[in-house]
Please model this.
Amino acid sequence: MTHSQRRRIPDAAVARLPVYLQILNNLHATNVARFSSDELAALAGVNAAKVRKDLSYLGSYGTRGVGYEVTYLIHQIRRELGLMREWNVVVVGAGNLGCALAKFGGFAPRGFPVVGIVDNDPKKIGQSTGALKVSDVRNLQKLVKDLEVTIGAITTSTSAAQSAADALIEAGITSILNFAPIVLAIPSSVSVRNVDLGVELQILSYYEQMRIEQSDSKSQQKSNAVPV
Amino acid sequence: MTHSQRRRIPDAAVARLPVYLQILNNLHATNVARFSSDELAALAGVNAAKVRKDLSYLGSYGTRGVGYEVTYLIHQIRRELGLMREWNVVVVGAGNLGCALAKFGGFAPRGFPVVGIVDNDPKKIGQSTGALKVSDVRNLQKLVKDLEVTIGAITTSTSAAQSAADALIEAGITSILNFAPIVLAIPSSVSVRNVDLGVELQILSYYEQMRIEQSDSKSQQKSNAVPV
DNA sequence: TGTTGTGAACGCTTTCACAGCT
DNA sequence: AGCTGTGAAAGCGTTCACAACA
Model:
């Protein structure tokens, strides 16, 4: 079945493609040329049917009886994820985290160069952080237009995060990576990914507690199983 | 319907409870005493039915015709998430991120004190970072036992991450917060949350590209709609 | 009246199972 | 013989819609 119209990949699959890509890059680095859905599934910690379904959304790029080619699949995933071009990032909030992101050289080689960092604190504006100078947040719109920025990272304090988001949206940004522990009010036309360690820890905490309660009831069960 | 046996909350709901808790803490700080599912839904960016279903997993703690009480609900969510006690955290990898986590005082007050940091680099062992001294990773098991640590944060290089995970599991850790861009091989009895900015950016990239392609076809559509 | 709590319907995601190719 | 690609089934999660009730 050929589908020449726009393919829409289910969100759940989109979230897994970067993980597959990571693994395939590793396989490529270790000179592995081919892989089967079983192998990738084992490395990704999912099951093989899921891998095949996910990869099938890209097109029919496998060979029955043989498997998939590493380099070819890397290319296809990169194409589908929009990684054949660069996406410029602007950081809002020149605190510890913001400056760390601006200095960190790890994003540019992966296609996400940080091209600007802004703040509203006059003391910070003009200071250098890595190769960048902190700009006034009031220049955000111009900066976004001139440097064709599409992604904004919010690294402000919690209290400033919503106005940072407003400024980014006003400036024409359509994707936000939010590090502030707050739910941003944004139009549905803008994508947001939240990175909140507090939330992650609390989720872990829930499963920790479940484990403890489960083992409690198990040991109770055990003592029931060996009655006096 | 009363269910006295162990309640198991769906994973999707568990992931939202910390977000609700965040919002309720804010409401509490601004002296709001009550809220309706509609209000919380608006603040959390979800719909009201989902809020009610999620909260109903905690028990029937609302009042029909009135709503929910902020402080009471905070208490119930905290109880359910296992936040009535502290969960000690150990950091593996005393690099930039690891030291930042150890120094950062933001976790202890939220119930997740970082009680240790380890590395395998002799140059780093013994150095101070915040209130902690970097320990030898070989002391991990003793550290985990003595300080009753349940959560391990992996902040090593990618290449060292799997052995860090192995060491944590060997030491008896049951929850891992992984910052390395790699899928860890771990037993299913251990919970893992991955924090990978590369993955987040690539997901945003996909939706950015979709937006562009959509607007391309729209403008094409537009030019079709106004033919020469 | 106003809002919760919840069966039932719906839609999305995962898994199964096997036809279809190499 | 072996592995992919995919309909169909099963399983979850979300939303609807309304009875229950303060």
In short: The beta strands of chain B are 34-35, 68-69, 88-92, 114-119, 128-129, 132-136, 149-154, 175-178, 191-194. Residues 1-6, 222-228 of chain B have pLDDT under 50 and may be disordered. Helices of chain B lie at 11-29, 37-44, 48-56, 70-81, 96-103, 140-147, 158-170, 197-225.
